[in-house]
Design goal:
39% helix; 15% strand; 8 helices; two-stranded antiparallel sheet; elongated; alpha+beta
């Protein structure tokens, strides 16, 4: 007696009774597209900011080094290597990899900031209690903390050089040096003191004599 082979179940029968999944709505597809575009835009923005930062580091380093007749190099990993190796390297070796730019024989650690057009100096007047979370974090204070942390590894003075798009280049240094430096600044020059740092135009900072900022070459 011949047996009949059972006809394989169709795809429809195989998944009969399974939970049906509704096709994505137009709104859902648009949300996914916007999220993808935002992530791509953010990635592109980060890449552009990184490139701009490197160009500015070279520009700032050139301005300061040439003004004082020195040379400069851009440090690898923007000083992060110094933090990781602080217990394994001598202070003299740490100096060469601390900060964003290393100007030869300088007695300061150089942090460079370019862009950050969403950061304003009037942020200094916003109280911590008034900040609305990560989106409103105190960027200026973060820079000060970063510069001070890296400078501590070498015992040198931290400085921050920052320029927003189409704005003057500013230089920030610890306020404890104000009494020592102010005699070299233009009388009545604009300055802003905040959280232990003083900001002036870089052109004012460059009026400080070389012997105040540099060690004598060996």
């Amino acid at each position: 007696m011949r047996t009949m082979s059972k006809k394989p179940a169709s795809t429809r029968e195989k998944f009969k009774g399974a939970i049906s999944i509704a096709p994505p709505t137009v709104e859902h597809l648009l949300q996914r597209l916007e999220k993808k575009e935002y992530q791509e835009s953010k990635s592109k923005k980060d890449i552009n900011r990184h490139k701009k930062m490197k160009r500015s580091q070279a520009e700032f380093g050139t301005i300061v080094a040439e003004h004082y007749g020195e040379t400069y190099v851009q440090t690898q990993d923007s000083g992060g290597a110094a933090t990781r190796n602080k217990n394994r390297m001598s202070q003299r070796d740490l100096i060469t990899i601390t900060g964003d730019v290393r100007v030869s024989n300088a007695k300061f650690v150089f942090e460079a900031k370019a862009g950050y057009d969403d950061v304003d100096l009037d942020d200094c007047f916003i109280l911590d209690a008034e900040r609305g979370g990560k989106a409103s974090k105190n960027e200026l204070k973060d820079w000060f903390d970063q510069a001070a942390k890296e400078a501590k590894l070498t015992g040198f003075m931290p400085i921050i050089v920052w320029r927003k798009t189409n704005r003057p280049i500013l230089c920030g240094f610890p306020s404890e040096y104000w009494n020592e430096f102010q005699e070299h600044f233009t009388p009545g020059c604009t300055m802003l003191c905040y959280d232990g740092f003083v900001f002036v135009r870089l052109s004012e900072f460059l009026r400080i004599p070389k012997e105040r900022l540099f060690e004598a070459p060996e």
